[in-house]
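Deliverable D4.2, example record:
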Amino acid sequence: MARGSAIPPDSFEEILAWLNPDRDIAGVMYVQLRHDLAKIFIWGHCGDPEGLTDEVFDRVAKKVHELRPTYVGDPRLYFLAVAKNLIKENFRKLKTHASLTEIDLTRQLTTEGDREHVDIEDCLGSCLQKLSSDRRELIMEYYAKEKQAKIDHRTELAQRFGITVEALRVRVFRIRASLEECIERCVARKAQEE
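Output generated by the structure prediction step:
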């Protein structure tokens, strides 16, 4: 998912103020909302619940200045609606994406039914090779573990780079967005060649 316009710098403060005028209560609500959104993405069988949760907040951050003065009702419902839309987008994109954790770059399938899958895997391998070694290593490590081990590993990665987990997510999101664009271009090119 490529980012559109830049996120205004004071958006986070405005999101907190929108959730609740009391900053302490708003902070608790923010943490709970992140947790709830991640669960929704897990239940929706989405591949990167934390990244999608970040995307929800990014999208709301871009519009919070417009929304806050006129929105009526619990603002958390707006976040949930954005999450619902992201789940729909995620399912539409599944046809053009290969999982970084499940790929076997050396596998060669020959049946016609497997051709599209092979194209996506080939494109992923090709696009990964185009990344710098640091970026390739980061994204491969970021998606290397599962469940609690994944959370612990991402915390260790952030510490290794001397950044917060949130900054790590942003860095990986940008790498992943460029990979997705590269894969889409590659698959489209291969489809034209056939």
